[in-house]
Amino acid sequence: MDQDNIKNKVYIDSWAPMRTEDVDPDTLKHITAMIDLLPDLPVHVHKILKIVSDYESNSKEVARLASSDPVLASKILNAVNSAYYGLNKKTDNLRLAIVLLGYGEVRNIALRCGISGVMGSGRDYKSYSTRALWRHSYLVSVCSETFEKDKESDRAGVLLTLGLLHDIGKFALCNAALIMRKKGIKIKGVKHSLGSSYVLEKEQRLFGTNHAIIGAMIAKKWGLSKKVCSTIEYHHYPSFFCIDSISKEYVKDVAVVGISDQIVNTLAGEKNLLPEPSPEFFEVLGVDSPIDKVITQELKNKLEKAKNFLTYIS
Asked: 6: part of which helix (H) or strand (E)?
């Protein structure tokens, strides 16, 4: 099979999501213009993401950066002083709060503050709720981390970040829809829709593109790594395209995020939002398919604990 055929091979014969090169040029022009208007991700958020992925760093360094943003610092303190942690006495020590929370939670709070500052919060459009999107992204990040046995490794931190960022395109679609509607801009949808009920297909009907493509464009604008950009763009490929359609250096990351996304959706009773990832993506991670075999009681308990934590910090 030649490379073009490999690239176009799909598992679902009736429908597959568009890729960047499939987007209508006029639509791409409008979307690019909207993304160009987005502010950059705050510098201190970039630095925190880098530091908390390095387990040789220390809480003093993270506290110094976090203290440069009063909103972020207050969020960290509010989280550690919540009933979830049950401290006997509330603390105003940011460094202690970071130690108690752990770098994973600090990463989550920093990203949430940074992205909410750029894209706004509390905005809803059709089925998109920013609160629900953050909840889903957080759970996917927690689930993604479980695929790395060494929780102190750099890769564990990277998987947390990928999980948190995988759906940033949905935030942008929500904002873009509101802005474009206000400006009277009509976005061209796909010309050939075959009646699929998948969320990606619905996005393409509305916007002429999907959140994975837009998310990768935003990540690139923010200067995030190629690994992050590619994983965001391809995170739904496991449900539609063969494994050879993804560069080998990103396959495992895409598999982790794609399968974690499906796990969280399945546990939320939304298994049919997308087709189940192909068995070869499970194989590359050394786990058994189908998805139900990956959902252990231990994983359920971990995600339930994560949901409980969210009720205290949301």
From this structure: helix 3-8
Beta carbons of 147 and 261 less than 8 angstroms apart: no
Of 176, 182, 70, 83, nearest in space to 128 by CA: 176
99 has pLDDT over 80: yes
3-state secondary structure of 81: coil
- For residues 306 and 139, is the Cβ–Cβ distance under 8 A? yes
Instruction: Find, among 40, 46, 84, 83, the residue nearest to 68 by Cα.
Output: 46
CA distance 288 to 280: 10
Cα distances (angstroms) measured from residue 298 to each of 129, 143, 152, 288 = 29, 11, 19, 16
CA 4 – CA 17 distance, rounded (Å): 16
The pTM (predicted TM-score) of the whole model is: 0.84
Greatest distance between any 2 Cα atoms in the chain: 65
pLDDT above 70 for 55: no
* CATH code of the domain occupying 19-313: 1.10.3210.10
